[in-house]
């Protein structure tokens, strides 16, 4: 019945149209209407992505649900959509996260509610476009356009230093992507006038050109992931962004960087990828080891989680450049799991911030006495962030460490230090915030979470646990595509 | 000398405009101030008439008239239509602004129409003398327009500066043209091209002349290092006139450059390409870096223009059909953005208040979310962020320059456009992240409201569907060059 529907187009345009409708409600007098339209739009947007999973053929490595239309014939640019097992889970994750963000901002955002909700809905559609685009220019358009709503979200609803953070976020990301644009145009001429990503993947390219192309893509995606040493925008952006912004940043936009490695760097420049893998592995390990220590020293909870995100994303890139199935799938599982966990962690901080208006660890203490339900959820997410077996955080890290040990013992050794440092910074923060005696009198007045907050916490808790116990439904859909990609990367593309 | 009336058919739009503007000039003398709007309506009608004549005369064929002095081809027709459009939009945007400032007089409209006539002659010139005549008609009208606000010292200074530097540039251009004449023995563009094609003509004299011609063109386009007049004139002139200089006359300058470089001196392209490379890099550097330091919105936009003209040169220096097409597309896109950005200053200004400081944009999102959104679209378009038209303009010149083998230049260009993004973002920051210090309601006239909304949304609409405009540019260039 659904076969005839352009599912990917729907997953892109339903949220965007909903966002425009929300904007049309106008000023804050109509805020309740804006909220309900936003929620409806987000749920509808998520609903249209569900068939992508149920109707997905996990045995095929080719692009599915493809849509192709001429868009700009002058440059042979097409509106070409399609997803494989690598991209498809992220479309779902993104649409799912949007629902959470709308609920999380329900009461908190009282200023320009319509613009807030619309920004997230439009961003959600654009991000789906990033994952579904099969045409380089189309990809670029979504990739850049997505920055505009995020820039506004951080700048309008953010904290005291929001302007600095928003501009830094925008310019850092733009810096990388402009070089990617030059690489696209170069490939356009090399391939004889095509902007199809799949054509680029088949195109033989010389080593020097491959390395330059790799670097152009690398700068673009490394900033997005973010990898050490271009990570400095993330803590700033996270700290200043409102809760919803942090959630989307951590759960989704970071994944776009890692996805870019799989879609562009590895298949378009496989020889350069092998040649430069030592470099990538090194900076990934620096992210895992060094950034974990940086996280340990933070006194601001959001900053701590931001640094922990960088460390976790280091695992993802490490896994990708092991060039084996386990590592790559481990990286992908880690991405999805981190999508849930970082969203949950930021939502937890958001819940506390809404009550006390502080993100400083030192301002809390003894929360367990006042907010027992919240403390329980927070415990689960903190454990998962530390990589406790039985939660989703464990699976990805474990797979990556296993794959690394096959390549080089010391890679695995260094990566495994995260099991100690990750537990240290997360649980130490948890201890200082939740246990101990109440020292701040304002903590006495804090209320436990209400039904609205309970609902998104419970959904995320289920997701984290389900994925930790039984990750097969996720690895199954990506298995064929990952193997296909690895087989492609193993072949030299030198002419 | 045989002469038939039908020889004049290609000049019909020019003849019509000359007749119309002469009529308006005289008719306006008999109007009292409260009936001045009739002049306004007549001027718009004259443009509409020109538009219809040009549109219905556009056959796609290249017709020479007046013994090779004048050419009517697809390139001219398309550029002229864009000129009419932007002049008409300028008039609508300016109406309220000049009314409250006592400039709502016949002179304003008559000078604008004469300038328009000059542009049309420039665009359709196929002879150096015709080119020069059109250029001077445009320039003299512009000098007068800049000085139109007689009691403003800044405007008088700007006009003076513009006049002196403009005269110098015209002199250089003429000198270069005379050199070319000496080397080739003709002033007719097509014949010069033919002579050069055969490899005739003295090379030293040619290159010498070429340097002067390119310098003159660079002044008219406003690219570094011949950009000095732009910031002062843009800031000093009444904003309505800045809008005019910043949009319609740019189209004429493009037509002028294409006629000389692409049609006349194509065979010398290896010589002028390297000059354009230097000017392009300098313009992008000077424009984008200096714009960061500005506090005046008009001045910031002036520097932004310089950087955009640098990008335009990227298309031109590719020196092939693809490159010229991309330059034309870039220029037309830029004109839409220029109309929107300067138009917004007019929209926000009111009696006794010029909204030309960057700080005047503070908190615009709270004062008027709709127009803040329009300016946001225009700013992102100027910065070249998709999904706006500015992105495709950048894409098309970048692909032209990479196709021509200058990949390093494309990298330099994107680095400067990253620097440029900063000051466009600052405008968005002021509108969206800051609190307003002035809550005067913004209530533009109905036609202005509609047109400005169309202008802003046009950035988005053309950004989502850029194909028709691209195809039009490719068709015009392909048919004419």
Automatic annotation (TrEMBL), chain B:
Residues of the NADH:quinone oxidoreductase/Mrp antiporter transmembrane domain: 125-419
Catalytic activity: a quinone + NADH + 5 H(+)(in) = a quinol + NAD(+) + 4 H(+)(out)
GO MF: NADH dehydrogenase (quinone) (non-electrogenic) activity; NADH dehydrogenase (ubiquinone) activity; quinone binding
Enzyme Commission number(s): 7.1.1.-
Localization per Swiss-Prot or TrEMBL: Cell membrane; Endomembrane system; Membrane
Origin: domain of life: Bacteria
Tagged with keyword tRNA-binding: no
Membrane spanning residue stretches: 12-30, 37-55, 75-94, 106-123, 129-148, 160-180, 200-219, 240-262, 274-293, 300-321, 327-349, 370-393, 405-425, 457-478
Purpose: NDH-1 shuttles electrons from NADH, via FMN and iron-sulfur (Fe-S) centers, to quinones in the respiratory chain. The immediate electron acceptor for the enzyme in this species is believed to be ubiquinone. Couples the redox reaction to proton translocation (for every two electrons transferred, four hydrogen ions are translocated across the cytoplasmic membrane), and thus conserves the redox energy in a proton gradient.
Designated name of the protein: NADH-quinone oxidoreductase subunit N
Species the sequence originates in: Sulfuriferula multivorans
Gene label: nuoN
């Amino acid at each position: 019945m659904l076969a005839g529907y352009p599912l990917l187009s729907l997953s892109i345009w339903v949220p965007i149209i909903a966002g425009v409708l929300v904007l049309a409600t106008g000023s804050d007098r109509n805020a309740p209407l804006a909220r309900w339209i936003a929620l409806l739009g987000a749920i509808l947007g998520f609903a249209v992505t569900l068939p992508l999973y149920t109707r997905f053929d996990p045995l095929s490595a080719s692009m599915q649900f493809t849509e192709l239309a001429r868009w700009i014939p002058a440059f042979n640019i097409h509106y070409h959509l399609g997803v494989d097992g690598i991209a498809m889970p992220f479309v779902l994750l993104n649409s799912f996260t949007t629902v959470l963000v709308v609920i999380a901002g329900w009461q908190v955002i009282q200023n320009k509610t319509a613009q807030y909700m619309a920004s997230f809905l439009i961003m959600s559609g654009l991000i789906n476009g990033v994952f579904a685009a099969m045409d380089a220019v189309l990809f670029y358009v979504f990739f850049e356009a997505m920055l505009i709503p995020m820039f506004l979200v951080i700048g309008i609803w953010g904290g005291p230093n929001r302007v600095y953070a928003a501009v830094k976020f925008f310019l850092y990301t733009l810096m990388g992507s402009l070089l990617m644009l030059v690489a696209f145009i170069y490939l356009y001429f090399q391939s004889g006038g095509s902007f199809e990503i799949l054509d680029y993947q088949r195109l033989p390219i010389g080593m020097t050109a491959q390395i330059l192309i790799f670097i152009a893509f690398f700068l673009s995606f490394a900033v997005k992931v973010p990898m050490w040493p271009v990570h400095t925008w993330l803590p700033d952006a996270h700290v200043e962004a409102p809760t919803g912004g942090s959630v989307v940043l951590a759960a989704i936009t970071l994944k776009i960087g890692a996805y870019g490695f799989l879609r562009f760097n590895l298949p378009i420049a496989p020889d350069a990828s092998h040649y430069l893998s030592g470099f990538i592995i090194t900076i990934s390990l620096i992210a895992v080891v060094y950034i974990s220590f940086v996280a340990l020293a933070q006194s601001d909870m959001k900053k701590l989680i931001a640094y922990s995100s960088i460390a976790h994303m280091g695992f993802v890139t490490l896994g990708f450049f092991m060039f084996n199935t386990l590592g790559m799938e481990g990286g992908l599982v880690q991405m999805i799991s981190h999508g849930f966990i970082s969203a949950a962690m930021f939502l937890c901080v958001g819940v506390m911030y809404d009550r006390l208006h502080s993100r400083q660890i030192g301002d809390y203490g003894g929360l367990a006495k006042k907010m027992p339900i919240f403390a329980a959820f927070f415990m689960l997410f903190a454990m998962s962030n530390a990589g406790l077996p039985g939660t989703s955080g464990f699976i990805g890290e474990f797979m990556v460490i296993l794959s690394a040990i096959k390549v080089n013992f010391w890679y695995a050794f260094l990566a495994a230090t995260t099991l100690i440092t990750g537990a240290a910074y997360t649980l130490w923060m948890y201890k200082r915030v939740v246990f101990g005696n109440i020292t701040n009198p304002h903590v006495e007045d804090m209320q436990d979470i209400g039904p609205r907050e309970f609902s998104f916490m419970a959904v995320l808790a289920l997701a984290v646990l389900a994925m930790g116990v039984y990750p097969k439904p996720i690895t199954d859909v990506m298995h064929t595509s990952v193997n296909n990609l690895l087989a492609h990367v193993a072949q030299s593309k030198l002419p | 000398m045989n002469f038939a009336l039908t020889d004049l058919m290609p000049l019909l739009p020019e003849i019509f405009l000359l007749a119309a503007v002469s009529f308006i000039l005289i008719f306006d003398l008999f109007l009292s101030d409260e009936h001045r709007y009739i002049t306004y309506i007549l001027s718009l009608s004259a443009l509409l008439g020109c538009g219809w004549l040009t549109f219905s005369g556009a056959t796609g064929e290249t017709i020479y008239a007046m013994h090779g002095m004048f050419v009517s081809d697809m390139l001219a027709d398309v550029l002229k239509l864009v000129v009419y459009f932007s002049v008409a939009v300028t008039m609508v945007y300016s109406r309220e602004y000049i009314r409250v400032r006592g400039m709502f007089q016949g002179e304003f409209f008559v000078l604008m129409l004469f300038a328009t006539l000059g542009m049309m002659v420039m665009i359709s010139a196929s002879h150096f003398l015709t080119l020069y005549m059109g250029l001077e008609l445009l320039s003299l009208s512009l000098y007068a327009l800049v000085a139109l606000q007689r009691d403003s010292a800044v405007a008088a200074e700007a006009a003076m500066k513009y006049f002196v530097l403009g005269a110098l540039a015209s002199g250089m251009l003429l000198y270069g043209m005379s050199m070319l004449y000496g080397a080739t023995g003709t002033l007719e563009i097509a014949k010069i091209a033919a002579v050069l094609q055969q490899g005739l003509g003295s090379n030293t004299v040619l290159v010498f002349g070429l340097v002067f011609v390119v310098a003159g063109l660079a002044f008219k386009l406003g690219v570094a290092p011949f950009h000095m007049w732009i910031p002062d004139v843009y800031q000093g002139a009444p904003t309505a006139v800045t809008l005019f200089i910043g949009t319609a006359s740019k189209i004429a300058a493009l037509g002028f450059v294409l006629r000389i470089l692409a049609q006349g001196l194509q065979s010398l392209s290896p010589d002028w390409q390297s000059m354009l490379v230097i000017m392009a890099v300098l313009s992008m550097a000077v424009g984008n870096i200096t714009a960061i330091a500005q506090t005046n919105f008009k001045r910031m936009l002036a520097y932004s223009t310089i950087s955009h003209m640098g990008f335009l040169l990227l298309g031109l220096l590719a020196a092939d059909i693809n490159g010229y097409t991309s330059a034309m597309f870039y220029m037309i896109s830029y004109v839409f953005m220029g109309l929107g950005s300067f138009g917004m200053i007019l929209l926000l200004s009111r009696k006794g208040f010029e909204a030309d400081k960057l700080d005047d944009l503070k908190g615009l999102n709270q004062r008027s979310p709709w127009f803040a959104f329009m300016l946001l679209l225009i700013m992102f378009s100027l910065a070249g962020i998709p999904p706006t038209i500015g992105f495709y303009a950048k894409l098309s010149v970048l692909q032209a320059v990479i196709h021509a083998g200058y990949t390093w230049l494309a990298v330099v260009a994107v680095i400067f456009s990253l620097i440029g993004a900063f000051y466009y973002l600052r405008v968005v920051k002021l509108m969206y992240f800051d609190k307003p210090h002035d809550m005067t309601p913004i209530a533009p006239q109905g036609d202005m409201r509609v047109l400005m909304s169309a202008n802003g949304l046009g950035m988005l609409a053309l950004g989502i569907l850029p194909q028709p405009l691209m195809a039009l540019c490719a068709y015009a260039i392909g048919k004419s060059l």
